[in-house]
Amino acid sequence: MMNKTSLIAIALLVFMGFFPLFVDSAWLAVGTTFLVFAVVALSQDIILGRAGVFHMGHALFFGLGAYTTAILNVNFGLPILATWVPAVLVPMLVAFIMVAPIIHLRGDYLLVATIGFNIIFIQVLENDVFGLTGGPNGLFGIDVVRVLGYDFSSQTHMYYMAFILLGITLFIMRNLDKSKFGRAMFYIHKDEIAAQSMGINVRYFKLYAFILGAGIAGAAGSMFSVQYSAVSPEAFNVTQSIMFFTIVLVGGSASLPGVLIGTFIMFVLPEMFREFETARYLVFGIAMILTMILRPRGIWPVRFGNIPDFLKKGVK
Amino acid sequence: MSEYLLEISHVSKYFQGLVAINDLSMKVKKGQIYGIIGPNGAGKTTLFNCITGIYRPEIGQILWKGKDIKGISPHKIAELGILRTFQTIRLFSEMSVAENIMSGRHIKSKQRWYNGVIPTPAYYKDEKANWKKVGELMDFFHLSEFATTPAGDLSYGIQRRIEMARALAAEPELLILDEPAAGLNEHETLELTQTIRKIQAMGVTIMMIEHDMEMVMSLCEYITVINFGAKISEGVPSFIQDDPVVIEAYIGSDEDDDNE
Ligand SMILES: Nc1ncnc2c1ncn2[C@@H]1O[C@H](COP(=O)(O)OP(=O)(O)O)[C@@H](O)[C@H]1O
Ligand SMILES: [Mg+2]
Hints:
The complex is a heterodimer.
Chain A: H1 4-22, H2 25-50, H3 58-75, H4 80-99, H5 107-126, E1 139-140, E2 145-147, E3 150-152, H6 155-177, H7 180-190, H8 192-197, H9 202-228, E4 230-231, H10 238-251, H11 256-272, H12 279-294
Antiparallel strand pairs in A: 1-4, 2-3
Chain B: E1 4-15, E2 18-29, E3 33-37, H1 44-51, E4 59-64, E5 67-68, H2 74-80, E6 82-84, H3 97-102, H4 121-140, H5 156-169, E7 174-178, H6 186-201, E8 205-209, H7 213-219, E9 222-227, E10 230-235, H8 237-242, H9 244-252
Parallel strand pairs in B: 3-8, 3-9, 6-7, 7-8
Antiparallel strand pairs in B: 1-2, 1-4, 4-5, 9-10
Helix pairs in contact in B: 4-5
Magnesium ion binds next to helix 1 of chain B.
């Protein structure tokens, strides 16, 4: 049986699948950026929307993935394919080391701490601390993906790689939401004391959310660096983190369609109104404020109650 | 091992200058329904918070099957088989009734760390078994018709049932109920009394705080009376009912049963 949401989802997937056939290269690039940023926003949503942790440093993990690929490829000559696993694992490891000591902090304190980490990250990149990051200019000349002598170098290739990454991400999030792990995050989010009293190890599941979110953001970062064949610090600063944070809240915490809508509004709509120059940002600022006032749970809020059908037979 | 499931021995808990619990001791036998009564502010809820790891008492021992569990974190207490409800209901109010009860299955679920990302055959089996258990509990507590309703949208009496179902879903050895009848009407209280008897019949030991004296006296096999954090009396219901010290404490305290 098919409900309305899955029909919309399938229509959207089909549309996005054929999107490259209808558009010019500029729009194709916008499409790719949408896909990559959607993955980052979804991974932010694991931490913020599910576990309910006020994390405002997500661009750090996105950037770690991007720089891992860039450094391994530009400085050490590794093929892009070989950088994918490290681009996921490095952010996961850093997330663990960074967050484990602060995970017990209350929401507002943790928020400030994550911003602090993001600022330090940018400082490290700009000061070229290990002579690897290329300083404020970043790194250039990142290779394309090559498999068995075949180059995936066109914009269309990039688009479909990002498309597959988004597909994998949505698959993971759907599994998460239907598992003990996703539910534990929700319980912690809704009432930490009640969750603990039901035997949920709050620290473990918050860390789980962070590490999973960091890994997915890292994969998106790797793709981002290849798309632009360059990385530089400002793409991963606190302003970007605020963007990802905002996308989740505007779109709808823990809502897959909500976060996709949020990404569309924040990254694709501005491209559509290019002729309005900077005035368009004024519109978005106002849109953000209005959403929070009129729809505080987001444009497409999460709906709970996704339980097996056999439990619904008594429902009137 | 002793014949007692839970032994609280000389426990004291302070909040800044305030002595919330003062040198309290009690012993709960397996299979018992144990009552704790006393005026408001006597320290009853604080005692439950000490047992369930929310607070760490400064002094004393809390022995679970002979082992000291004082200061252990709440999730580990739950894993040991001690589950509770709250005086001020704490449900995951935006989530459906079924999802609320499913939280009780958390410690029973055998899903592995990677099942948060990829499903496996064992995962499907585990998931199905746990939802089935949720279905049984919804039947037991007459909640099936609300399976998909957000818990926060339901009446007080129903929410109390969801909280008990959630705790019971974890298959506890000791069920701790903090004023389970508060806010219930007469009919609901009667139903609750029967439910608690059925839970006892399943082999679950029960500790309860309750102001409804009729219910306490009919259900509990043994009762401890607390006032100002200290034990003022203990014994079987017939003894407590006539104990002048207890009567004195209740008259002297302007006891008001209708506290929220
Ligand atoms: N977290 C806390 N911080 C400070 N004082 C507390 C705290 N919890 C309870 N108390 C105090 O401890 C005393 C006992 O409270 P409580 O255990 O809730 O009483 P009861 O459940 O018997 O009505 C009260 O005076 C209450 O104000
Ligand atoms: Mg109380």
